[in-house]
Amino acid sequence: MSSSYATNPAPAPAPAPAPFDSATGPGGAVLAKRRRINYACNYCRNRKTRCDEQKPSCRACIAAGIEC
């Protein structure tokens, strides 16, 4: 029995993207390292904002007039 359907070979899997160095992005562009903040104060954490961790009070606490 002959089949009237054409059989196509399975498509080849897409090549894996080339890995890039953590200091460079795709295309070789140099990425700036981001400074990660370890701990936010309670006020910034509750507001889910970035805390600058200035001592004795961060800018958000100074602007709000509260103790950091």
Automatic annotation (TrEMBL):
Single annotated GO MF: zinc ion binding
Keywords tagged on the record: Nucleus
Top-level taxon of the source organism: Eukaryota
Domain (Zn(2)-C6 fungal-type): residue spans on this chain: 40-68
PANTHER family associated with the record: ZN(II)2CYS6 TRANSCRIPTION FACTOR (EUROFUNG), ZN(II)2CYS6 TRANSCRIPTION FACTOR (EUROFUNG)-RELATED
SUPFAM superfamilies listed in its UniProt record: Zn2/Cys6 DNA-binding domain
Region (Disordered): 1-27
One protein family per Pfam: Zn_clus
Protein name as catalogued: Zn(2)-C6 fungal-type domain-containing protein
